[in-house]
Amino acid sequence: MKKFWLIVSIWCMLLLLGCGVMLLFFAPKDTTYSASENRMLEPFPEVGVRSLLSGEFSVSFENWLSDRFFGRDRWIAIADRIDSRLSLLSNADRGKLAAMDTQIDETEAEPSDVPQVTDAAAVTPESSAAPTPTPVPERTSAPSKDAMQPVTVLTHTPAPSMARTPLLDYDKAKDTDKQSFAAVKLIRYDGSEEQISKYQKWHIRHAASQFNRLAALLPEGGHMYVALTQRSEHVIQYSAALDKYKAYVSEAEDYLEPLLDERISVFRTMDILEPHIRAGEYVYLKTDHHWTIRGAYYLHQAMIEAQGLKAVPFEDYRITRQPGTFTGLNYKIVADLLPPDTTDYVEMVEPGIPYRFYRVNDIDTLTEYPLNNPDEQGYQAILWLNMRPWKMIRTYQNTGRKMLLICDSMGMAFAPFMANYYDEVHVVRPHETYYSAAQAGGTIKEYIDHYGIDDIYVVQGAFFTADLYRKTLDVSIGDGK
User: Fold this and answer.
1) Domain boundaries, the chain
2) CA–centroid distance for 450 within its chain
């Protein structure tokens, strides 16, 4: 009998060993998105002496292992059904809780053919008061709509709003604080707070170091502008109960700004957009996690007017609206917070000035495209959302300045508005799905040097939540760090 159980034990150990080997060889090693959990799954950790000695590898490996067990999605679905049957929460309560999660962009195929731009119904935009700008170096002359004049940039920087201690040469392996957070909160009228999302502070420290490295690549007189955008489901949770909440507060910018070089200005996007949200303007899509071009316009307006320029009115852009409406993937998350049968529509924007739009490969290989891709449904139509690796809007403004926009999908709606103030607007999306070093033909430093980039803008919604952006940027900056 003892021999029988010994044999059974040995076979069980061999079976478990075999499953472990199969898991190591066949389980995905890259970060992937889990639709059932609305989050990124852990990638296989990098193996190195420092990660092994610091214990970071064992922690990361355990997280990867727990994310990759066989039949994971099926077991999670079963557990969710059981939890739903036993839960005392209403559907509305579950919807509000789901709205606190953070989802990444959907992965789309790279564009191949160039469609013809078709006419769409013109849209009459709304006007609104300009948001309060953040102090940044001023430009001494503003571009005119009729005759653009060269723009001169002052070399002095006004005193920062808070003491700065720039974070340089960040080493993730030596960062022992991986548990503290910067919260995003809703403030009730009675003064109490409700946290709806949070950012890990070590992610912000990592990003701050990268922003400082990018700013160091700029020439004298260059400046960098950073804005963290929120996702639609968080905004909807706020806008759906304006009688309950009086403010939307993010601690991320407060934590980030003191870590940055004085040549970097931080813009608090929700402070800029909140008056428009409370006024009921269509600045965020309802069923999709992106903002609209109107939301992007207000951020651009704040950034431009903080530089001493007059922002071109929204009405001066060419706005076309996609025929029909659509329902985005976020609808299942926020359905209980919206009126029944809520749908969205997408507007596409073009500058009201002469321009050309290019896809850029190998740094200087240009292929001309129409600015937007109206054959795509929803937000994917805006600025060829998932085109890689570089994009460029070239204008004839003779401002003498060029800019680089580093962004996720949120920045696609932002880029066209900047064409009025720069001769060239370059766009890169530092995510391994949308950026290929082989296609890029060089690092960001080489790209900046080649085109003579003066200013950098970062408009990003996922930088503090998706490790892939920071990981890709680490190796693509090209500053030798």
Assistant:
1) 2-88, 121-476
2) 26
